Amino acid sequence: AAKDAGRNCTRFFSQELSAAAERRRQLEQALRRALDEEQFVLHYQAQVNAAGEPEVMEALLRWNSPERGLVPPGEFIPVLEDSGLIIETTRWVFRQACRQARQWREQGHQLRIAVNLSPLDFRQADLAGSLLAILAEEDTPAELLELEITESALLEADEHVQQTLTRLKTAGLPLLLDDFGTGYASLTYLQRFPFDGIKIDREFVAGLPDSEHSVALVRGILTMAAHLGLHVVAEGVENERQAAFLRLNNCPSLQGYHYARPLAAEECLLAGVIPPTPALLLPLDG
Ligand code: C2E
Ligand code: MG
Ligand code: MG
Ligand code: MG
């Protein structure tokens, strides 16, 4: 009887497993369709300077699923990565970002768009070539875009990654190290790769200004970055006390719900996150 129970148990588990595998397969298929039928949308979150003016808008991917509603990236990016669909998705994101950056520029807004790369994007033979081809096809100057790369992309810190990053930077795309401080070898990455700036992870910002530990870490990071000539963005700024501390310590760029949530491009204008351009306010004189 014990043996039978064991067998039933095994059957139960394998049914559970195959149900999970089946859900996963369906999710993958739905994501394939999402790509083909353009169900993805980009929301944009402002990075502001010390005067509170937006300078960079970070593109953050959402899936507008007919069945599931608006799905956040944490729920589907891992699946895109496992299935290899991430490579095509990144190209889509980058192309949309090019078009949006051009449109804002044509409307007179001085904004760049930051695009997040996945570690898996570096597995393709020619990531740099594919992104530079899109810039050319969309007739978009590289200076309107920048790239955010998480430390996990650099774990495979080999020649290939090094060459890819150098080529992108040489083409005029600024490179930012995302979630700085949460990886295994943040300082090694700064030493080895040609970054233009870092984004301090919101984990460190969250403790400001009350935690002595966070204060020391953030001050240390800002001092180091200044010595290295690196730009700094503080992520996850949620209140004025954090913002005041960061401004007082000369953090050049701030991002977080305190300033703006990620919004669709039109909403950024409607909500006033992107101010109306002076050119559009001037009276027309013939
Ligand atoms: P990330 O690049 O570090 O983006 C910051 C995340 O923090 C975003 O979540 C943003 O909405 C959220 N956030 C911003 N300000 C605050 C704040 O003040 N408080 C808190 N608690 N959170 C804040 P989101 O949009 O869910 O994106 C999560 C992650 O998904 C991103 O982290 C990025 O790693 C990834 N991701 C998003 N879009 C893309 C994409 O197009 N491609 C790739 N490869 N990854 C993406
Ligand atoms: Mg990012
Ligand atoms: Mg980040
Ligand atoms: Mg983060």
UniProtKB/TrEMBL annotation:
One of its GO terms (biological process) is signal transduction. Residues 24-276 form the EAL domain. One of its GO terms (cellular component) is membrane. Transmembrane segments: none annotated. This is Sensor domain-containing diguanylate cyclase. It comes from Stutzerimonas degradans. The lineage of its organism: Bacteria, Pseudomonadati, Pseudomonadota, Gammaproteobacteria, Pseudomonadales.
